[in-house]
Design goal:
By secondary structure, the protein is mainly α. It has seven helices and no strands. The chain is elongated. The two termini are 37 Å apart.
Length: 184
């Protein structure tokens, strides 16, 4: 191999070179996926209900298809950000987010700051997605007249309310990381 050939690690961008997006960028980039989630569940349920014999598999097809479509749109429109670390590192990232939200002091390690920023972006990005899914399921319940969709919407609403505290901390973390001098 010649000296002009670079290794795979030389071609991959480092985590420090990708800035953490702002709260507004995360929310605006998640909005198309939220609109898709809000619209696709009623449309898929209506399309599937044209068949007379609705079954459990029809319910699962609408549910899975809607989430896959929303996830695909989210992956396309998602703001560039550092990659999340391993699952085992999430506890330390959540601790960094919580402590920064409470006292306003960012972690000193830039890689931990970037990883916690990526987790904060992920958690804030679920706000419009959860709202879009709840709206979609409520519209589906009205459209089909099937109360099963209302139960799913209620479950998603409860799940979203349980994560409000964590989302508020992530929101504050992203605000602090963009107001602190020399952190981006």
């Amino acid at each position: 191999m010649g000296k002009h050939v670079r290794g795979r690690e030389a071609l991959a961008p480092s985590e420090q070179s990708i800035p953490v997006p702002t709260v507004g960028q995360v929310l605006v980039r998640a909005l198309p996926a939220a609109v898709v989630l809000g619209a696709c569940f009623p449309l898929l349920a209506w399309w599937w209900s044209l068949n007379e014999d609705s079954s459990f598999w029809a319910f699962m097809a609408v549910l899975g298809g809607g989430f896959l479509l929303g996830w695909g749109i989210l992956r396309i429109t998602q703001a560039p950000r550092p990659r999340l670390g391993k699952k085992s590192e999430r506890k330390s990232q959540q601790y960094a987010i919580a402590s920064t939200a409470e006292n306003g002091v960012l972690p000193t390690d830039s890689s931990q700051r970037a990883a916690a920023g990526a987790l904060a972006c992920e958690l804030v990005g679920w706000i419009p997605l959860g709202a879009g899914a709840v709206v979609g399921f409520v519209l589906t319940a009205f459209l089909t007249g099937d109360p099963t969709w209302g139960v799913v919407a209620a479950g998603l609403t409860i799940n979203s309310l349980l994560h409000v505290r964590q989302t508020r901390r992530s929101w504050r973390y992203l605000k602090v990381i963009h107001t602190a001098p020399g952190t981006i």
